[in-house]
Design a protein that fits this description.
about 575 residues; alpha+beta; Tumour Suppressor Smad4; Immunoglobulin-like; C8orf32 fold; 4 domains; 18 helices; 31 strands; about 30% helix; about 25% strand; disordered C terminus
Length: about 575
């Protein structure tokens, strides 16, 4: 009950609010000179009994019971006299006599002047995922007329430094003692500001009535890094925002894992294929949360931060990172993914699964293991890591998930498809870097090469476009390896098959550009460099590119290694970074 309070929403009570003491039963009633004063005294309301109701906390919940009052008690319009204990949840409106009390969480803040009291309930923390899904920063705004006369209409301005433009709310006329609740529009620019944020920040909130700033407590708002999930109870569903089925690496991984699986395979078969591919083909390591995670939030490694190198098939992540990645692959494969979080002996633990058959109209959040285990297949995602005892077969990973369900306390289960139905969409790839001039010229050179032959716009024309850059790192490295870049280009052109004109580039061509963009984001670059494009191209499992490089005597691994260590590359990068801003990086 720490920080919880009752605030007066309507009635003649002298006080505006009553803070609830930790571990103490609270009596609600009307005081008298002869008797004990109730902790929540709503006098002089004559329709409230001396001992009207009691409130207490138990097992992390709040409960209320009417004590046989004359006029009864209602919770959110439901009479409770004679029902015994009734659970209270944040925001409940308790009506007794001519008084209404609202149960306010520690995130309620109040501002007062001579005529009105303004109460705001803020989200405990705020971040890009919440803004993207339309979750308001100000969850509730209640204005009460505390003056002796009806108030005139006025405009309330709410500003939060560094989180977009201030918003304005028109407040209507209210009679003395009356309170009204208002919706607060979304903050223009908040999502843009948050998508480029790599670490959490603190902001100050200010209120003004008709341009005159209100006195009140200093309110600090914490905003999260773009890849940080708020673990607050009210934000659990927003974990679905970090499941990114359309990320280029997820698309590639899903294709690699499922390309031999029949299209009519069961959901469990899809889950097994994705898990087995990660466990046997990739060299994944289990790692703790990225630096900067806190008790009220956890940074989630996005796909390109888990799958660190497609060429080396290496990567790292927490159980939550791996669960979110596998869930994204399942969603890409049109399977309904599930994620569940548990309180383990030492820390939270995540498992991942899917419904064995498609379902509709389910709740996003499921609170008991019986419902989660019925009709679903689960596994422990840490089993696909190669860290000694953590490495598990698919069947052992399933058994590990079942042990977790039997032995640990369930925090919640998340049905990603149901969250999508609630409007929680995947995060866009935030802060997408633009193509740098050399990368643009390389792509245009690839198009010209494909049109002149003519041939498919694929990986080999893209390599030719890159090597045609007079001052490019690719051309420079080829000169060191085989001495004559022009001869290499001519041999590559001659080896291209002649094909009818194609309207679209090849899948691998598009994947190389997408991977280059993801690589630029991971490095915090505002532009896609030639180096990003070339390394992403060399990491692709392209048979045609492999044969072309072999024909000109270039080893792709040696080529990529030389590009990574090219001493002149730092100078070309510095020339590209003319307008640096913060983009998606490892937190």
């Amino acid at each position: 009950m720490t920080g919880w309070r009752f605030v007066c929403a309507r009635g003649p009570a002298v006080n505006d609010e009553w803070v609830l003491a930790e571990g103490q039963e609270v009596l609600i009633g009307r005081g008298s000179p002869e008797g004990d004063e109730p902790r929540v005294d709503v006098g002089p309301d004559e329709r409230v009994s001396r001992r009207h109701a009691r409130v207490w906390g138990k097992s992390g919940q709040l409960w209320i019971e009417d004590l046989g009052s004359r006029h009864g008690t209602s919770v959110d319009g439901r009479p409770i006299r004679g029902l015994g204990p009734v659970e209270l949840i944040p925001g409940d409106l308790i009506e007794l006599g001519d008084t209404s009390l609202r149960l306010a969480s520690p995130n309620w803040h109040r501002f007062r002047n001579a005529a009105v009291t303004i109460a705001l309930e803020l989200a405990p923390v705020y971040g890009y995922a919440l803004a993207h899904a339309g979750c308001p920063l100000i969850r509730r705004l209640v204005v009460r007329n505390t003056g002796p006369e009806s108030s005139a209409a006025t405009t309330l301005s709410i500003g939060v430094e560094g989180l977009g433009e201030p918003v304005s709310v028109r407040l209507d006329v209210a009679s003395p003692g009356e309170s009204r609740e208002y919706e607060v529009p979304c903050r223009a620019g908040a999502s843009v500001a948050l998508e480029e944020q790599t670490e959490r920040r603190h902001h100050a909130l200010h209120l003004a009535l008709d341009g005159v700033r209100l006195d009140g407590p200093e309110i600090a708002i914490t905003s999260l890094a773009h890849n940080e999930w708020s673990v607050a109870d009210a934000h659990r569903e927003y974990l679905a925002s970090f499941v990114l089925p359309n990320h280029p690496l997820v698309q590639q991984l899903t294709h690699d894992a499922l390309h031999t699986l029949p299209s009519d395979s069961r959901s469990a078969d899809v889950l097994e294929a994705v898990y087995t591919h990660l466990a046997t083909t990739w060299n994944l390591a289990y790692r703790l949360e990225p630096p900067g995670s806190a008790s009220d939030g956890q940074k989630v490694r996005l796909p390109h931060q888990v799958l660190l190198g497609y060429g080396t098939l290496s990567g790292a992540g927490t159980c939550l990172d791996l669960a979110v990645l596998i869930a994204a692959c399942l969603e890409q494969a049109r399977v309904q993914p599930l994620i569940a979080l548990f309180n383990g002996r030492e820390s939270r633990h995540a498992i991942v699964g899917c419904w064995d058959r498609p379902r509709a109209s389910l709740e996003p959040l499921l609170g008991d293991t019986a419902r989660l285990s019925r009709g679903a297949v689960w596994l422990d995602p840490t089993g696909c890591a190669r860290d000694g005892a953590l490495s598990l077969s698919f069947e052992d990973a399933r058994e590990a998930a079942m042990r977790c369900m039997r032995n640990d306390e369930l925090l919640f289960g998340l049905d990603v498809a149901a969250a999508r139905a609630d409007g929680i969409e995947p995060l866009p790839l935030a802060g997408t870097p633009r193509l740098g001039d050399p990368a643009k010229r390389a792509i245009e050179g690839a198009r010209s090469c494909a049109e002149a032959r003519p041939t498919l716009l694929g990986t080999v024309p893209l390599l030719i476009g890159i090597l045609s850059l007079a001052d490019g790192v690719g051309r420079r490295v080829v000169q060191e390896l085989v001495r004559d870049p022009e001869a290499v280009i001519q041999r590559l052109r001659a080896g291209l098959p002649v094909q009818a004109a194609q309207e679209r580039p090849s899948r691998n061509f598009n994947t190389a550009v997408d991977l280059a963009t993801a690589r630029a984001k991971a490095e915090g670059s505002p532009v896609v460099l030639e180096r990003h494009l070339l390394l992403s191209l060399l990491e692709l499992p392209s048979a045609s590119l492999g044969k072309a490089l072999e024909a000109v005597g270039i080893n792709p691994q040696e080529f990529a290694r030389a590009v990574r260590h090219d001493p002149a590359e730092s100078r070309s990068m510095a020339q590209e970074y003319t307008s640096m801003s913060r983009f998606l990086t490892e937190g």
